[in-house]
Write a structure and sequence with these properties.
Largest sheet: 2 strands, antiparallel
Strand content: under 5%
Helix content: 55-70%
Length: about 375
């Protein structure tokens, strides 16, 4: 593929704009109207708290059903996303860029003093545009931060499924493609089953909404996390039985650590006295959990995330570094994020954090880092 042809494929079309607009419109309507558990968010500095309607799973299943029916009626092709992948990538990128500019402009003009909408302006235009100005900006009653995370995770699944449909259509479906699709689908479905856990994560609680999060949710997650599928479309991989077993083992261990750690932290924030692994939790200074996975490493959930990312790439074999972009990137990102977390926690908790570090010396991987 020459550069000119590549650039031509990157030009947004009316079809790609329509796909994106319909996707967002559906999510906005479904998120506001479908039944779902109403989950209270973290208490903010001013004592207020947002409430999140966690109906992502039913929204996802209904949309999948609509697309399946539309495909049967020849209204929509299941490969439309795979066929227009680069168009959708550039369209989503431009949308993210424009949204970040609007968020910056609205945030600068805001005079609201509540914790969710209070502007945090540093005076550095690039910094404020990148990290955001407001904590929880809304549009027509929709919390945009929670909305964009949901859109990104669903987008990732539908890109994968479109790639899978294309592999079936082209006769290139392989064991590796099935493993990749299975692991990703299980991970994404699990995310929506436990969607309420997202309400207690650092991104939702503390990160302001700027280009970093908008781009990360809408572009980075769906389009880079699916690289392995794109690669498998044009590369045949034969896996031995031992490799398949090792891949499955990596996924299961990663899932148990990731889901277990996040569940423990979420339950602890809701009920600090809830038992962890059948025992009363050990709490440092009345604030920091030092039991269960959180007594093994201070950021043990990152270890689970890394193992899961590796399991998504292992079906591609070892012949190319391209499918390993995601786990390599995630390793760099999580080490950087872990350093940011450590600095913030040291400033926030002071002596309590020093005591936690003494009791739990390992950052991510015990006895290594």
């Amino acid at each position: 593929m020459d550069l000119g042809h590549l650039l031509h494929l990157l030009i947004p079309s009316t079809t790609s704009v329509a796909i994106l607009a319909l996707f967002f419109a559906y999510l906005a309507i479904a998120g506001s109207t479908l039944p779902g558990k109403l989950v209270p968010g973290a208490v903010l500095q001013d004592g207020s708290r947002l409430h999140y309607r966690c109906n992502g799973l039913i929204s996802l299943l209904i949309l999948a059903g609509i697309l399946g029916a539309a495909s049967k009626l020849d209204i929509v092709s299941l490969t439309v996303i795979a066929d227009r992948g680069l168009e959708l990538l550039s369209t989503t990128f431009l949308f993210s860029f424009l949204v970040a500019l609007v968020l910056y402009a609205v945030g600068c003009k805001s005079s609201n003093r509540c914790s969710s909408l209070k502007p945090h302006v540093s005076g550095n235009l690039l910094d404020d545009w990148w990290f955001g100005i407001q904590l929880n900006p809304q549009f027509m009653g929709i919390d945009l931060k929670f909305f964009f995370v949901r859109a990104g995770m669903m987008g990732w699944l539908f890109i994968n499924l479109s790639i899978f449909a294309r592999s079936v259509q082209e006769g290139t479906m392989s064991q590796s493609m099935v493993l990749f699709q299975l692991f990703c689908a299980l991970y994404i479905l699990d995310y929506f089953i436990h969607e309420e856990y997202m309400t207690s994560t650092w991104d939702i609680i503390a990160e302001r909404l700027g280009f970093m999060l908008v781009f990360g949710d809408l572009v980075w997650i769906p389009f880079t996390f699916s690289i392995q599928g794109w690669w498998l479309l044009s590369n045949k991989v034969e896996l031995r039985t031992a490799a398949v077993i090792a891949n499955c083992f990596t996924f299961v261990i990663g899932y148990l650590v990731f889901r277990g750690a996040n569940k423990q932290k979420h339950v602890f924030k809701k009920d600090p006295k809830a038992p962890i692994w059948g025992k009363p939790p050990r709490v440092i200074g009345g604030k920091l959990l030092a039991s269960g996975y959180w007594g093994i490493a201070r950021h043990c959930n990152y270890l689970g995330d890394l193992l899961l990312a590796l399991s998504f790439s292992l079906p591609c074999g070892m012949s190319s570094p391209v499918p390993y972009f995601y786990p390599i990137y995630l390793l760099i990102l999580l080490i950087w994020r872990e350093r940011r977390d450590e600095a913030r926690c040291a400033e926030k908790y002071r002596e309590i954090w020093a005591e936690y570090r003494r009791l739990v010396p390992w950052r991510i991987l015990p006895y290594v880092y």
